[in-house]
Design goal:
About 65% of the residues lie in helices and about 0% in strands. The protein has about 220 residues and is mostly helical.
């Protein structure tokens, strides 16, 4: 599910190299970090949270480039935000932010950039714009980009739904349904799913329809 072809992975590696070069980062360490990114996002348990997910988010970021104040921050946050993904744990965002900080320091990235990238990653824990000191300006749009899958066409969303279930295949069906319904209902109850008006106009209606479909599917099994 959502697997990336080899030629597209090569293009992603070039995008990564260009990003770090544009930030005057260490080329040698950028190669080392790419190898780690590839290793983490290629873990066998990842049916959705893999390089295809990163590729999709990068594409949406590029489409909204004119609205993004610090494109490198958003790009780095996309690359690192799911680097640690253990479905048995509840602190993946924190661990991802910590690992991102270590790796960006190794690549000699500007400290302010590192701080803002970590803020973006931490905000994905509840998909809310937290009140960070010296908050990154692009957190709302980054969070919108992270949730574009919710507003995908119905067939793509259904594939995503199956992929998420597969990532939690170790969990018994009743426990999975309860946990997934809690997440979905929290999104359904939000007044705003997307913060940026253009993103809301593009994705909100379909996202709510998709969420309603999955809630019904999980409720009436």
């Amino acid at each position: 599910m959502f697997l990336i072809p080899a030629e597209q992975k090569s293009k992603l590696q070039l995008q990564w190299s260009d990003l770090i070069q544009g930030l005057a980062g260490s080329p040698r360490h950028a190669k080392e970090v790419w190898a780690l990114l590839d290793k983490h996002y290629s873990e066998p348990q990842r049916s959705f949270h893999n390089l295809t997910h990163i590729q999709s988010m990068l594409r949406h970021a590029e489409e909204r480039r004119a609205d993004i104040q610090n494109f490198p921050v958003v790009s780095l946050a996309i690359w690192f935000h799911d680097m640690v993904y253990d479905t048995h744990a509840n602190n993946n965002e924190l661990k991802s932010a910590e690992l991102a900080g270590e790796l960006m320091m190794r690549m000699e990235i500007n400290p302010t950039v590192i701080m803002h990238v970590q803020q973006c990653i931490l905000a994905t824990a509840r998909h809310e714009v937290a009140d960070f000191k010296n908050r990154a300006a692009d957190i709302p749009l980054f969070l919108d980009i992270a949730l574009t899958i919710l507003g995908a066409p119905k067939d793509v969303y259904q594939q995503y739904s199956r992929a998420i279930r597969n990532e939690f295949r170790w969990l018994e069906a009743p426990a999975y349904r309860a946990g997934r319904l809690k997440v979905l209902k929290r999104f359904a109850d939000r007044e705003q799913l997307y913060f940026h008006p253009i993103m809301a106009a593009q994705f909100d209606a379909q996202a709510r329809a998709n969420i309603a479909w999955e809630i019904k599917k999980l409720t009436f099994v």
